[in-house]
Give the backbone structure.
Amino acid sequence: MPCIHRGGAEQAKIFRPRNLTPNDDGRLAMLQRRTREQENRSWNLLRLVLDSNRRLCRRLTPNHVHEANVFGMYRKLGAVLLSHPEVTRVLDCGAGKAWHFPSHYKSWYDIHLIGADIDSAEMAHNTALDEKIACDVTEKIPVPPGSVDVIMVHSGIEHFRDNRAFLENAFASLRPGGYLLAQFPGRYAPFAIANRILPRGLTKRLLKYGMHDSDELGFTAYYDRTHYSGFVSMAEDVGFDVTYHLPGFYSSSYAEFFFPLWICSYIYDTLRFGLGLKNLASYNLFVLQKTNLADSESFQLYAWS
């Protein structure tokens, strides 16, 4: 057993066992180095396998799956809302490090952009923002009542502890006729269920393997009533009109690191889409409007209406 010599300058020095010679020390160091090299080779092989699985899955995923997702639609509908001649003051909730639209939209549409985030450091280098407000939007949105034309939330709703409180604060901040555009994961998405059940450390490791941008996805998520019926019920109770909803069922990108898992996930996504099970959607996109009784016209966002 190793022992600690307690005399003089040698105090706290850990000695090697008496039966080890200097040559034995050298062999031990060499063994440790070889072990580390073997571990590195194993990890490199694992990364190679995961990357190969990921490339294969992405090659097999039809392009229209990506084109029709809620992330793309968020940008398209956002551009439509920002182009409205009566939209000048825009609030980005959970603003983070960057706005999710081209910066020239601000000059094109004469937009004054306000950012709100619970973590002021996240907004520190967000140059698109004209104002930065550090706040918890479920407690209060510190802007004058009725002073905002559009509120935007990109993948933020799932991180709010109390979404009814957020919707109430958003409703108060919007002018009559103003819009809220929000895109967020559904409560019953496979990855959302895993995120709630699995230990946080394991979740972050899975995100690291499944998605390269795991730092962005690693924030604590609550998924408070982020399923279709739960969110619609809250929004209507608060006073919003649901102008548009788009469910997104494809979330198999999280399983791309392992081809057999991706196949199972893709089949499940296809079944949910075919059956139109909105409450089981992996993602939701909503456009909500604060009713303006003096204005009977609104955007016609559904292609078939």
